[in-house]
Amino acid sequence: MWYVYLLKSKKTERWYTGSTCDLRKRILSHNTNKNKATKFGAPWKLIYCEISLNKQDARARERYLKSGVGKRYLNNRLKFFFAKGF
Question: Which fold has domain 2-84?
């Protein structure tokens, strides 16, 4: 199983979208500053996740969610989450 996930920085309020086969280990990696791209925003909170059966589908979905259309999709999908200010 592969996971596509969306993290939100508790420090900067920015988003990070990624994919992995081990979600717990990957989030721990983000929160312990082991990733160059996300060490500025730690701690991170998981706010959205999708599951795929293979890596290719997960990577394609990750690319989509990082695009402008994908970001609009996430804003619409999580509109109540963002409205409450979590």
Answer: GIY-YIG endonuclease (3.40.1440)
Domain range list for the chain: 2-84
Tokens 């293979």 correspond to: 54
- Tokens 């109540």 correspond to 80
CA nearest 5: which of 41, 46, 44, 34?
Answer: 46
CA distances from 59 to 9, 31, 32, 50, 67 (A): 22, 22, 24, 11, 13
Per run of 10 residues, the mean pLDDT along the chain (length 86 residues) is: 96 95 96 92 95 97 97 92 66
* Amino acid symbol at 6: L
